[in-house]
Write a structure and sequence with these properties.
By secondary structure, the protein is α+β, with helices and mostly antiparallel strands. About 35% of the residues lie in helices and about 45% in strands. It is built from two helices and four strands; from the N terminus they run ααββββ. It has a four-stranded antiparallel beta sheet, with no helix packed on it. Helix 1 runs antiparallel to helix 2. The chain is elongated, with a radius of gyration of 17 Å. The mean pLDDT is about 80.
C-alpha cells in the first residue's frame, strides 16, 4: 500500500507541476492517470503478530472494481501500533 501511495503521490506531483490550460484539463489528466481509482473499501484480511512487530495483510477495493492486495508492517510502541 505504501508503494502504491508513493507512486500516486509522485504522479500527482508530476501532473500538478505541468501547466495545462485549465483546472478541468488537469483534473481529466489526473483521472486518466489514476483510472478513477477512488478507494471504496479497506479490509484487514490477516494479521501476524511477533512480539512488538506485526504485519497486517489488506484487501483494497477501488470504485472501479479493482482489488489490490497489500501488506503493511506495524511496530508496537508505548502500547500503540504504528506503521513501521
Amino acid at each position: 500500500m505504501r508503494k502504491s501511495l508513493r507512486r500516486t503521490m509522485a504522479t500527482h506531483r508530476a501532473l500538478s507541476s505541468v501547466r495545462l490550460g485549465s483546472f478541468r484539463q488537469l483534473r481529466d489528466c489526473w483521472d486518466a492517470a489514476t483510472r478513477h481509482r477512488s478507494l471504496a473499501a479497506v479490509e484487514a484480511v490477516r494479521q501476524v503478530v511477533r512480539g512488538a512487530t506485526a504485519r497486517v495483510y489488506l484487501k483494497l477495493t477501488y470504485l472501479d472494481g479493482t482489488i489490490v492486495r497489500d501488506s503493511e508492517p506495524l511496530v508496537l510502541r508505548r502500547g500503540r501500533w504504528f506503521l513501521g
